[in-house]
Write a structure and sequence with these properties.
Blueprint lengths: L6 H13 L4 H8 L3 H8 L8 H11 L3 H15 L22 H15 L4 E6 L6 H11 L8 E5 L10 H11 L4 H21 L4 E5 L4 H4 L10 E6 L10 E4 L5 H12 L1 H5 L2 H10 L4 H12 L6 H8 L2 H7 L1 E2 L2 E2 H9 L4 H9 L10 H8 L3 H13 L4 E3 L2 E3 L2 H14 L2 H23 L22 H10 L1 H13 L3 H10 L13 H15 L2 H17 L4 H18 L2 H17 L3 H18 L2 H17 L3 H18 L5 H21 L3 H17 L3 H17 L3 H13 L6 H15 L2
Parallel strand pairs: 1-4, 1-5, 2-3, 3-4
Antiparallel strand pairs: 6-7, 8-9
Helix pairs in contact: 1-5, 2-3, 2-4, 4-5, 8-9, 11-13, 11-14, 13-15, 18-20, 18-21, 19-20, 19-22, 22-23, 22-24, 22-25, 24-25, 25-26, 26-27, 27-28, 27-29, 28-29, 29-30, 29-31, 30-31, 31-32, 31-33, 32-33, 33-34, 33-35, 34-35, 35-36, 36-37
């Protein structure tokens, strides 16, 4: 059973009129029914019309037989609310183009089976505006209709209205819809309606959709306590106060589902002309069903437009929300309804979250943006989550892409440019300061934050510092770029310098070449040759290790050597020679690399730089390995391990772990080439364990790929497969080259 009397009939009439692309005036002229009368019907201000008026409207709309009968059925329900609910099977339009949600539908089907056994089921479907909560509920209700022979009822709770219906009013509608006589209602009185309601549902196997609920108080009295009824509640709020309910949060569609959705709206032929443009439209809609529907309708009503033209229009961020409007349906209007219900603090934080550069934020970031106390901000963020305007994943909070554009628009409309810039500046300063303190954990002579440091995040251990730097990388990188843009050269150099040793912990992040190049330019602007040499050397390292640009790396190390000589700094001269030797070794020019390695070792020794000496020893041993001098390489690597043991605490712990891992990996490689498979595997397993213990996925991927090779060569096929699998699982955190190789080797094993 579907409530299409009053508001239901009016909504159906309006939808049919819009589908026919008719204004009220045009329908009035075509049907002979007054425009005012049509308007009153659509708004629910006038009682359901008689059959002759409905027929005239159907003729004016030029309805097909099925739609005509649907409109007439809605009118009959309105005139006779006691009609047997089981006789009505119509549902509102908008569910025929349903796409995806297979997992959710499977869950609902399972719960419907429980209801059939006599156990009432209540499901709360929640999600941000425009995710298709109502569509999912209606589609599920139609699919499950045969399991509920006593009927189906759809109630619009108008939760976003300023004055939504009260529970007593809604309860009365249900009681009338299920056929409770007026005399029984009058006899029970309003105080007795809850008892009648429970009794009525307990004796019926029916499905009730409570659409667009405002809050728990509105729906709690409508939930059955016994019987075989099933209730689907849709709400933008999570309704966390409800007990004994199944929760079904939904979000955007997948990229493939979004493409199917758009194709269904505009047709296969048109969608197939430019599939790349179709994918871009879906992406710009952030895979949000409401936005996809608006975009599809835009194209469907503008046959002269290509899909590419709309994709290019949506690419303009400042116009995207304005573009996502079709007739009286606007994506931003759906957001407005939720935004206007926020408390002032929540609305302000929502707007300021648009200033966050990365995809998500922490409570600490919210505190920096607003100046609120930490726990107050946490409460405010949870309010935004509860209202569906913010997603959460453990301690991270994320604005949907379109909601972020909407928040930016509200920020520009409600806050001055000076206010926004002050908030952004405060956030960026905090990000840079915190990144410096976190990075210093991995730098010799620093370690833990000083006792005077008062931070809002926990950096009490190196693991916490590492996690913060990785989690907030997009945000502090944006602050770094902002500092460079504002020519804060000292701030740029300080951050890059603080992250120098941390870069070994996250080698394949992807942005070290940018960080080091920016810092080198700032150092040159400061006119300090020592800083210039330092950051030119760091750029040489990044070009060599992160991008494999050997010749470009040598150009930078040559520039670093010249600057270090001007500064009279032996250590930076040594690093320049060491990076030059490293690049030459990668290029196979081992004879040319040797004198640079010797010069680096002598300069490091003269400068008393033990970390540099350690690096020079490793570099020399690796050059021997690349040159095919495997036994000599093993001997040099064992000498390096002895040096590490003797140096003890003189070597920064993370640097010691980094180099021990590399040494064990290189020994394993050399033993593999000597065909000593068992010895190779032993060293490589040690390397894997060391890399994992120090949370270094870049080194772990290197050790795993060589371990797999040694195991495979030694005839241990399944063990090799497991090592390849572990390497693949590291994903983007590992060395991209090794991860790709692992995938290829797994494919070969599967086909051999």
């Amino acid at each position: 059973m579907t409530e299409e009397n009053g508001v239901g009939f009016g909504a159906l009439l309006r939808q049919l009129r819009l589908d026919a692309s008719l204004t009220i005036e045009a329908l009035a002229e075509a049907s002979g029914v007054s425009g005012r009368g049509i308007g009153d019907l659509e708004r629910g201000r006038r009682a359901t019309p008689q059959r002759g008026t409905v027929a005239a409207l159907a003729n004016g709309l030029n309805l097909r037989e099925a739609e005509r009968e649907r409109l007439l059925a809605a009118a009959r329900i309105g005139r006779n609310p006691r009609q047997s609910p089981a006789d009505v099977r119509a549902f509102p339009r908008g569910i025929d183009d349903f796409v995806g949600r297979e997992q959710e539908l499977a869950q609902l089907t399972g719960l419907a089976g429980q209801a059939a056994l006599g156990r009432s089921q209540v499901v709360a479907v929640s999600g941000p505006p425009g995710t298709g909560k109502t569509t999912l509920a209606l589609h599920a209700a139609r699919e499950l209709a045969d399991r509920f022979p006593d009927g189906q009822l759809v109630l619009d709770l108008r939760g976003m209205d300023d004055d939504p219906p009260l529970p007593a009013e809604l309860m009365l509608r249900v009681l009338k819809a299920v056929g409770v006589a007026d005399r029984d209602l009058a006899k029970a009185g309003s105080q007795g309606h809850p008892g009648l309601y429970r009794q009525a549902l307990a004796g019926r196997r029916c499905l009730i959709v409570l659409d667009n609920a405002r809050d728990e108080a509105q729906v709690r009295p409508l939930l059955p306590s016994a019987g075989g009824a099933m209730v689907l509640i849709t709400s933008r709020r999570m309704l966390t106060g409800l007990e004994d309910v199944e929760r079904l949060p939904i979000g955007e569609l997948s990229p493939s589902e979004a493409a199917v959705f758009l194709t269904g709206v505009i047709g296969k032929d048109r969608a197939g002309t430019d599939p790349d443009a179709l994918s871009e439209v879906a992406l710009r809609c952030a895979y949000l069903p409401l936005a996809l529907r608006v975009a599809g309708n835009w194209l469907a009503t503008r046959t002269g437009w290509t899909v590419r033209r709309l994709a290019d229009r949506l690419a303009l961020q400042e116009r995207r929300l304005d573009t996502l409007a079709a007739g009286d349906v606007r994506v931003s209007a759906a957001f407005d309804l939720s935004y206007r219900q926020l408390t002032p603090d929540a609305a302000r934080l929502f707007r300021f979250l648009a200033l966050v550069d990365g995809p998500d934020a922490s409570v600490a970031i919210g505190a920096q943006l607003t100046g609120q106390e930490y726990f107050d901000v946490e409460d405010t963020l949870e309010e935004l989550v509860e209202t569906g305007l913010l997603g959460s994943d453990r301690d991270r909070y994320r604005l949907h892409d379109l909601l972020k554009l909407y928040a930016r628009g509200r920020l520009e409309a409600e806050d001055s440019e000076e206010t926004a810039e002050a908030a952004r500046g405060a956030l960026h300063r905090w990000l840079l300061e915190t990144a410096v303190v976190a990075g210093r954990w991995f730098e010799p002579d620093y370690g833990a934050p000083p006792a005077t440091w008062q931070g809002t995040v926990d950096l009490s251990t190196a693991d916490h510092a590492r996690q913060w730097l990785r989690t907030e990388s997009i945000n502090w990188l944006a602050a770094f770029r902002s500092a460079a843009h504002e020519q804060d050269h000292a701030g740029v150099v300080e951050l890059a310098d603080a992250l120098h040793w941390f870069s070994d912990q996250w080698i394949f992040w992807g942005h070290w070449p940018e960080v080091s190049a920016t810092a080198a330019a700032s150092a040159q602007a400061l006119g300090d040759p020592l800083l210039e040499a330092t950051h030119l050397n760091l750029h040489a390292w990044a070009l060599l290790i992160c991008e494999g640009r050997h010749h470009a790396s040598m150009e930078r190390s040559a520039q670093a050597l010249e600057a270090a000589r001007r500064a009279g700094d032996l250590a930076q001269q040594a690093w320049a020679h060491s990076y030059t030797a490293w690049a030459l070794s990668h290029l196979g020019e081992y004879s040319a690399a040797a004198p640079h390695n010797r010069e680096a070792a002598e300069l490091f020794d003269a400068a008393g730089d033990m970390h540099g000496t350690l690096h020079a020893m490793c570099s020399h041993a690796d050059t021997l390995l690349r040159a095919g001098r495997h036994e000599e390489s093993i001997a040099e690597h064992l000498r390096t391990l002895a040096f590490l043991d003797q140096a003890g605490d003189s070597i920064e712990p993370h640097s010691a772990a980094f180099n021990r891992t590399n040494v064990q990996t290189s020994i394993g490689q050399a033993q593999t080439r000597l065909r000593n498979w068992a010895k190779a595997a032993d060293h490589l397993r040690i390397a894997v364990d060391l890399a994992r213990a120090s949370a270094n996925p870049g080194l772990e991927s290197r050790a795993l790929i060589h371990l797999a090779e040694a195991l495979q060569a030694g005839g241990h096929r399944e063990q090799a497969r497991e090592s390849y699998v572990q390497c693949v699982r590291l994903g983007e955190s590992g060395n991209p080259e090794h991860v790709v190789t692992a995938r290829e080797r797994l494919a070969e094993l599967d086909h051999s």
